[in-house]
Description:
Distance between the termini: 54 Å
Strand order of the largest sheet: 1-2-3-4-5-6-7-8
Number of helices: 10
Bound molecules: 3-methyl-2-oxobutanoic acid
Order of helices and strands: HEHEHHEHEHEHEHEEHH
Number of strands: 8
Amino acid sequence: MNSKIKKIINKKNKSKLICLTAYSKNIAFEADKYADIVLVGDSLGSVLYNYTTTRKVTLDNMINHSKSVRLGVKKSLMVVDMPYNTYNTNSSALSNAKKIIRETKCDAVKLEGGKKIINQINFLIKNNIPVMGHLGVLPQSTKGKFKSKGRTSKERKQLITDAILLEKSGVFSIVLECVKTLTAKQITQALKIPTIGIGSSVYCDGQVLVTDDLIGLNETKIRFVKKFVNIKKYLNFGLRKFASEVRSRKYPSNRHSY
Ligand code: KIV
């Protein structure tokens, strides 16, 4: 097992895991300083391309952004989302996962789902592909508005069963997206591998957020997003100053000219 993955599993019940998304080198470089895991999420479809669904994200999209992210990630585990329709069968899952790892040099891939895709996950892990799971709200399978998961006892049981199934298959961690607090707590307590929550309460072993959301670059009203800084304020300050100095001929001065 990759030593970075071992470290991540060993943090369970010791210290919280930090996971941040990145879609390009410069954000990845900053995120890498604070993260255990840098995730190239297929959320890039909505954040960068205004897609209403992540289903439109292609393998090439993921590979191109991940190549850039790789340049910024030095110490964290780098995980890349396998996009929609790229893991429908064992053989397509394996050839696409291999392509992602070969071309981007990432450490692991993430797939959305439990029982429905357990054959593919088993097959990847048997073939030495490190896999991160993803349960709860599954954006690739959800049409329309996202609704939290684990509200009814049937849903809760299904999620716990899926989580245990994923752990048995050998995934090293599971993202829990919009899972009700009590359910997320039960899943986290039932597993030896860490859970990474997004909108799934403080009881998860770690947390993930889309970096563009938490720095306020991407405007969103999703309940689980907290804006930790309003980066747009600083961006606008710099851009406005540039425009003003160009217009007033203050910039470029001799110092900035050849
Ligand atoms: O696509 C993504 O960024 C994700 C995270 C939000 C977990 O899957």
